[in-house]
Amino acid sequence: MTILRDGDDMNDLLGRDVLTLGEFTPELLQFFLQRVSVQKRMASTAASASKPLAGRSIAIIMLKPSLRTRVSFEIAVTRLGGTPVLLIGEGSAFSRGESVKDTVKVLERYVDAIVLRTYEQSHIEEVAEHASVPVINALTDDYHPCQVLADLVTISEHKGRTAGLRAAYFGDGNNMANTLMIGAALSGMDLTVSCPTGFDPLPSALARAEEIAQSTGSRLTIERDPRIAAAGADVIITDTWASMGQEGEHDERARQFAPYQVNADLMAQAAPGALFLHCLPAHRGEEVTDEVIDSAASVVYDEAENRLHAQKALLTMVMG
Ligand code: CP
Ligand code: NVA
Question: pLDDT below 50 — which residues of the chain?
């Protein structure tokens, strides 16, 4: 594997949007992972005083609630020397009937990038279409690329690699499942998504993942039986059964997803030393039990911390 250094001309992401993670190539992902690793090692040295975003402003627009994404982006931008401009809640942007075009065309006169958490993927696509500055997806109904980048950092740190590992995701074929398929393909990891009928990941996400997997050899599978999916897995992942905006469906979903709960019995099917990941917030007693999320297998707090490191690396790749 080529060892890439800061300044090496391998950064095809400069000035581009990151809306799904499908913008990455396997080579770019390796570049990203190395950059995170270097940044973390340098954090306590003089090199951390470098401020690549000095004099630049980044809008962080959150139309859904957030703890991790909002705080980690705000701190990432600040540590890189930039100025985060927070627009939080429905009253802050895109909610007064002003067209997306007018909102974006005004915003980009002030800021150098837009980080956006919203509902429909078509909304962030429309923002990106009008924006001349890069747009980064901070979660939509369909994708959560910043989270999956942090997940790949976490797996790589704890397992020493990603290629050749077997991961299994349990529950809803939601924004995390869609993005994990692409992330697994990029990183050379196999991924089995175990979900009930009617809750499969998006066909378009699977298609992009399969396209990438042609060069990395990852295998992407849907498996209805959670015990078969967990058998021998190196990484076990789950997410909420009712995502933001689906709260009204919670009880019906809880009934349908109950067989996909990650509990000690399911973890016992996995490979020895298997990791447990969850993007958080977790609903303890629903998609995961206390005994799993509080076990030695669980790396959920490292995963949350890595949001900060991953987004620092992503911002420098997108913004230079
Ligand atoms: N995992 C994640 O995106 O958390 P927040 O919703 O708190 O940002
Ligand atoms: N699937 C969850 C992820 C939260 C970080 C949601 O969209 O609510």
Answer: 1-4, 6-7, 9
Query: Same domain for 152 and 176?
Result: yes
CA gap 260, 166 in Å, rounded: 18
Catalytic, 130? Answer: no
Number of the ligand closest to the Cα of 71: 1
Let me know: does 99 contact 76? Beta carbons within 8 Å: no
pLDDT of residue 46: 61
Tell me how many domains the chain contains.
Answer: 2
Q: List the catalytic residue out of 121, 172, 239, 253.
A: 239
User: Is 224 marked active-site?
Assistant: no
Q: Which of 21, 60, 63, 68 to mutate to test the pocket of ligand 1 (most atoms within 8 A of CB)?
A: 68
216 and 166, same domain (yes or no) = yes
Per the annotation, the verdict on 307 as an active-site residue is yes
pTM of structure: 0.96
Phi first, then psi, for residue 209 (nearest 5°) are: -65, -40
